[in-house]
From TrEMBL:
Protein name per its UniProtKB record: Uncharacterized protein
Organism whose genome encodes this protein: Diphasiastrum complanatum
Amino acid sequence: MAKQLRVQVWNPAGKHRVVSTKPMPGTRWIGLLTAAGCRVEVCTENKTILSVEDIRSLIGTQCDGVIGQLTEDWGEELFAALRKAGGHAFSNMAVGYNNVDVDAATRNGISVGNTPGVLTETTAELAAALTLAAARRVVEADDFMRAGKYEGWIPTLFVGNLLKGQTVGVVGAGRIGAAYARMMIEGFKMNLIYYDLYQSTRLENYVTAYGEFLKSRREVPVTWKRATTVEEVLGEADVVSLHPVLDKTTYHLINKERLALMKKEAILVNASRGPVIDEAALVEHLKENPMFRVGLDVFEDEPHMKPGLEKLPNAVVVPHIASASKWTREGMATLAALNVAAKIKGYPVWHDSNNVEPFLDENSTPPLACPSIVNSKALGLRIGGKPESKL
Ligand SMILES: NC(=O)C1=CN([C@@H]2O[C@H](COP(=O)(O)OP(=O)(O)OC[C@H]3O[C@@H](n4cnc5c(N)ncnc54)[C@H](O)[C@@H]3O)[C@@H](O)[C@H]2O)C=CC1
Ligand SMILES: O=C(O)C(=O)CO
């Protein structure tokens, strides 16, 4: 028998019971759910990652919808439990949903929401921060300073890499990858090489236009190239940043053999998902190539690092904080809550999950729609959405 977990209840008399497995930033999301007639139960148990058993006990015998987290294992067991409890709406508070078995949700008639767009710039900025920290050895230098080792300026102290005029490689040029590319190109005048299953004409046009602008100012123009293989990016780029989804095609995309193709002094950044890199192979590569540097936001066995990584000065490591800006986290909570509330109310799915702005303006009421449902087609859900109507 699972232990009863602590919950905080909002709008106890609400008609529809919605559970959030974690407290989420801001209060707008709670207001939107209660305005939609939901009783909201927020799990406040002091436990970082809830088990499947914990979540089953939160779902209980009657539950209309759940907002879950990317650390949780949402598979057949939980979706069957939610269906049995009368539920038909789930949303991850994340854009990535590799923790969710979408087919199992569909089999159980449950919609799966995610939170695209609101974290694009925030995540790209952290990838840029990791790139700079690795290129200019910021963390090593900070450690050195705090340890009282600085005795005065010398020409050889913490020499790193200049980004200007170098080539940035992006693997996965979707929303976040393209935003990161633009930051590195505009900020540091880097040339672009990218690899994605799809052509990013918008990104290509953007770089072309920026190159023309630079030319008009008599500056060296930036260039772009779409690679036909990931190997081409790894061989040519001075900085490689990974932004694909995690699925079977990207698991261990960066392995021992592909690391060996990279320049000895290259920088590798990962703010996508840990298993995109074979982390044990990366540890060996970093040991053998001290001038090769990485910036990692995500890890293969999160929250753990592969043995040895913690000792390597050529690795900058942060705990999955790429989406951690106040605006983004509150926006993620809002989108997740609306994915659940609008489904419970029977509203359609928003027609353009790449443009969720209308849901994020705190001063206006959101459209009558679920912002983003990844199995909308499989469930045969209506597409639509009408702005400026009250939920
Ligand atoms: N570290 C963090 O805190 C965060 C991590 N993420 C991760 O970033 C991922 C990307 O997010 P978005 O850019 O919003 O998604 P997106 O769907 O716009 O972009 C993903 C891109 O990956 C490409 N792709 C898929 N398979 C590929 C392959 N085998 N090789 C190369 N490219 C491939 C897709 O075609 C697409 O363009 C999420 O799925 C999530 O896992 C997202 C937000 C925050
Ligand atoms: O949205 C995601 O996929 C995240 O990793 C959140 O940080």
